[in-house]
Specification:
Blueprint: E1 3-9, E2 12-23, E3 26-37, E4 52-58, H1 60-71, H2 74-81, H3 91-104, H4 112-116, H5 121-124, H6 134-141, H7 146-164, E5 170-179, E6 206-214, E7 220-227, H8 232-250, E8 259-262, H9 269-278, E9 281-286, H10 292-295, E10 303-306, E11 312-322, E12 325-333, H11 335-359, E13 365-366, H12 382-393, H13 396-401, E14 402-407, E15 418-419, E16 421-426, H14 428-436, E17 440-445, H15 452-460, H16 463-473, H17 488-514, H18 521-528, E18 532-538, E19 545-548, H19 553-561
Parallel strand pairs: 5-8, 8-9
Antiparallel strand pairs: 1-2, 2-3, 4-18, 5-6, 6-7, 9-17, 10-11, 11-12, 12-17, 13-15, 14-16, 18-19
Length: 568
């Protein structure tokens, strides 16, 4: 806490505002402010002539991210592709300020101005003169389109690769979607559409998004935004693969140098025609339903090994014809996954068995001339009971294990009454056969120089792109939703800003690793958010006084490693 200090100089008392802190166990003066002669102040009330006000300023995370943006020349790249007349902030400056906001404290564009006033943004962008409100961003988002965004990402890839030495030889691809509350009614609202919502919001219009990320650090290299009614496999073959080909061509990279990692939802004949033609290396999952004869492989037919994360898996190499040619497959067996799947399967079987018993406990007994409420008459017919039981058991996998029989006549007359007897049992032989199919998955790859367990490990790094989607959708930072835009240009701009924020955060983590202080995105955000400035405002003083807050040891280490003092 700041405190008042009196100093007697030549018979007069002068006042100073001082703040101390400890350094190596000793009290040191952090800062001291001269207030003036004592007689100018009313000391028995609050300092009337010079009232002290303080406010906290966001500093550390913004400065660290801005440093990354400068390294990859983000503003310059955007402005080169999307120039505007020399008036106010450029398109690049608008987008970078918005991206910093998404990383630090996501707000609506109408609240952006008030957020800026509590940060060091004005020091980083001294030419801010206009109000950065929703209208300003709607206008600047119109400078962007899919072609310009692709050009921006192409130049950024070059800068990212040269500045951070990112290995681009292995790229992970995955699509997702996010729901919106947009009800499109205009011609310029073509992106929000009804489709298969991966978040289960079937009644809402969704927006599709796909990412290509490096396996080296999970850096998002480029993204594609497309209407919510386009299916994953269609997007992969018609948009994603052609876009990747264009990117590689512009970077003078050969397709044969790139290994693509993707999941089975993107498989199609047309996609593999392009993959084969471009000679891409690939590792992808395949549908178990297309390998039924290999699902029954015994666990002892797999070569067991330990992955780098300590998990035990078994692999078995198989081959077969698919998409017009012989391909290389790997059957993968996970003992822990098999155990977990079997326990859950058995629980479901027992639950179905009990539900059927409970449902028909009072429905299959009829006294002569008895009338029951509802549709009880239908249970007098044996075939109706049979159909209901089958529907309650569900899929063929459960029907093979959960056996039943119904004894009694084909139908029970109302006058005479009667009873159906229901017998339910679990077939132990079929249960054992079903258990043997569990814990198995299948990969397809043409990277023949990799050992099977390495192919499994590389494919499992697919989680990096899935984690990127989680960051985009989380409620603490980036926050791609809720979306307060409705027309295509604003949706495109908003998603691009969130994507740029993800790029900056990913590269910040990469930078910390290079500096010898590895950290996750969450840890980096939490630690750098500790680095704040206290702004001291004195009435009668024109310029406020700014002081760096006391830092924890980890925050102090990042402040030093990142050399953030250059921004203070």
């Amino acid at each position: 806490m700041p405190f008042l200090v009196r100093k007697l100089l030549k018979g007069r008392t002068y006042l100073y505002l001082r703040h101390n802190h400890r350094v190596n166990g000793k009290v040191k003066t952090a800062w001291q402010i001269y207030l003036g002669p004592e007689e100018e102040f009313h000391l028995h009330s609050k300092i009337a002539k010079r009232e002290i006000k303080t406010e906290t300023i966001e500093f550390g995370l913004i400065a660290a991210l801005f440093q990354v943006a400068k390294r990859i020349k983000l503003i310059e790249v955007i402005d080169a592709v999307s120039p505007k007349r020399n008036q106010g902030l450029s398109v690049g400056e608008h987008l970078v300020i918005a991206a910093l906001n998404r990383c630090v404290q996501p707000t609506t564009k109408s609240q952006l101005q008030s957020w800026i006033d509590k940060t060091i943004i004005r020091k980083l962008f001294p030419n801010i003169t206009e109000n950065l409100d929703s209208r300003a961003y709607w206008n600047h988002f119109r400078y962007l389109n899919d072609e310009k965004i692709e050009k921006i990402e192409k130049e950024l890839i070059k800068n990212i690769q040269s500045e951070f030495n990112i290995d681009m030889s292995q790229l992970s691809f995955d699509p997702t979607n996010f729901y919106s509350y947009i009800n499109p009614k205009k011609e310029n609202q073509t992106i929000p559409k009804h489709g298969h919502s991966k978040e289960g919001r079937k009644t809402l219009n969704i927006i599709n998004l796909s990412l290509f990320c490096t396996l080296d650090g999970g850096i998002p290299l480029f993204h594609l935004l497309y209407p919510g009614n386009i299916q994953d496999a269609v997007h992969f073959k018609e948009q994603a693969l052609p876009a990747l080909k264009r990117k590689l061509s512009s970077l003078n990279l050969s397709s044969s140098e790139i290994t693509l990692i993707f999941d089975k939802g993107n498989l199609s004949n047309e996609a593999f025609e392009q993959i084969d033609e471009q000679r891409f290396r690939y590792i992808c999952s395949d549908r178990p339903s297309t390998h039924k004869k290999h699902l029954s492989l015994d666990p002892d037919q797999f070569q067991m090994s330990i992955l780098p994360n300590g998990k035990e898996i078994g692999t078995s190499i198989i081959s077969g014809k698919k998409y017009g040619k012989n391909r290389h497959f790997i059957a993968v067996y996970s003992p822990k996954k098999a155990e977990w799947q079997f326990k859950n399967f058995l629980k479901k079987v027992e639950r179905k068995k009990q539900e059927i018993k409970d449902y028909f406990q009072t429905r299959l007994n009829f006294a002569p001339n008895e009338s029951k409420q509802g549709k009880s008459g239908m249970w007098r017919i044996k075939t109706n009971v049979d159909k209901k039981i089958l529907s309650m058991i569900g899929s063929k996998k459960f029907q093979n294990v959960l056996k039943y029989s119904i004894s009694g006549p084909d139908s029970i007359s109302k006058e005479e009454g009667g009873t159906f007897k229901l017998y339910l049992s679990i077939d132990p032989l079929t249960l054992a056969e079903t258990k043997n199919t569990m814990g198995k998955s299948f990969l397809m790859s043409n990277v023949e120089e990799f050992a099977p367990e390495k192919i499994v490990w590389v494919y499992r790094q697919q989680y990096l792109v899935e984690q990127a989607f989680k960051w985009l959708k989380n409620s603490d930072f980036l926050q791609i939703r809720p979306m307060y835009h409705s027309v295509d240009s604003s949706i495109r701009g908003h998603v691009f800003v969130c994507y740029l924020g993800l790029v900056l955060l990913s590269l910040l983590v990469r930078n910390l690793i290079d500096l010898g202080v590895p950290s996750s995105i969450y840890e980096a955000i939490a630690t750098l958010n500790e680095i704040r400035i206290t702004r001291i405002i004195l009435t009668g003083k024109r310029n406020p006084i700014e002081n760096l807050n006391q830092l924890s040891p980890k925050a102090d280490l990042l402040y030093s490693k990142l050399k953030l003092n250059q921004f203070f």
